[in-house]
Design goal:
Structural class: alpha/beta
Order of helices and strands: EHEHEEEHEHEHEEEEHEHHEE
CATH superfamily of the largest domain: Response regulator
Number of helices: 8
Radius of gyration: 18 Å
CATH architecture of the largest domain: 3-Layer(aba) Sandwich
Shape: elongated
Number of strands: 14
Number of domains: 2
Strand content: 15-25%
Helix content: 40-55%
Largest sheet: 5 strands, parallel
CATH class of the largest domain: Alpha Beta
Length: about 230
């Protein structure tokens, strides 16, 4: 059964091009030209991934991203934001809202398809480890429920922040370069800047509070999680 993708894009040429090329890759594609039309599709069906334009005639794609990621039933649906704006602030906002990727127009259709496949692959990967928790001092990571607790207080993380934290904790004591984190957490080594990795690390530290100090910066190399909570 083919995976369903919802494309919300108001530019007809881009919409037709992406619909054609994604269909050729075996995806079942639904297209909307506005937020309201996109919401109608979302309310009527389930999608494996949403390609969401940032600037739409009836509002901002960020508002829809925020709405979906705060919905308990729809928050796990991956979202890739498409936009003509190449502003780091917009990228940070998109990622903080839970977007899984961000592509700036004009973009290579082939690259976008590779990104779509990478995001879907991340979502389909299942842990073969029977251990359902990671514990590090007062930090507890529940793998099955995607919940994180610090000193028994629940911490709200985006899907990417959760995966980044788990990656660091699972490899604690070992330094990981920004490029390695891009490959292992984001699923590719395309033009996501290393500054984006730094932004996610900064946000993760802030959310972890007293446990954030264990996410260490190794100058000129990358990051590591402390080996022990001493």
């Amino acid at each position: 059964m083919s995976q369903k993708i919802l494309l919300i894009e108001d530019e007809p040429d881009i919409r037709k091009t992406l619909e054609y090329n994604l269909s050729r890759e075996g995806f079942d594609v639904a297209c909307a030209s506005s937020l309201s039309e996109g919401k109608n599709y979302i309310n009527a069906d389930q999608f494996s991934l949403i390609l969401l334009d940032l600037m739409l005639p009836d509002g901002s794609g960020l508002d829809l991203c925020r709405e979906l990621k705060s919905d308990s039933e729809k928050k796990t649906t991956p979202i890739i934001i498409l936009t003509a704006k190449d502003d780091e602030v917009d990228k940070v906002v998109g990622f903080e809202l839970g977007a899984d990727d961000y592509v700036t127009k004009p973009f290579s259709v082939r690259e976008l398809i590779l990104r779509v496949k990478a995001v879907l692959k991340r979502g389909n990967q299942k842990s073969t480890n029977l251990e359902v928790q990671r514990q590090f001092g007062d930090l507890v990571i529940d793998i099955d429920s995607h919940e994180v607790f610090v000193d028994n207080e629940s911490i709200t993380l985006t899907a990417l922040e959760f995966k980044l934290l788990r990656q660091l904790v699972d490899r604690r004591g070992r330094v990981q370069s920004r490029d390695q984190l891009l490959s292992d957490v984001w699923g590719y080594s395309a033009d996501v800047t290393t500054r984006t990795v730094d932004t996610h690390i900064k946000r993760l530290r802030e959310k972890l509070g007293v446990m954030g100090k264990y996410v260490q910066t190794i100058r000129g190399v990358g990051y590591k999680f402390s080996r022990t909570p001493d």
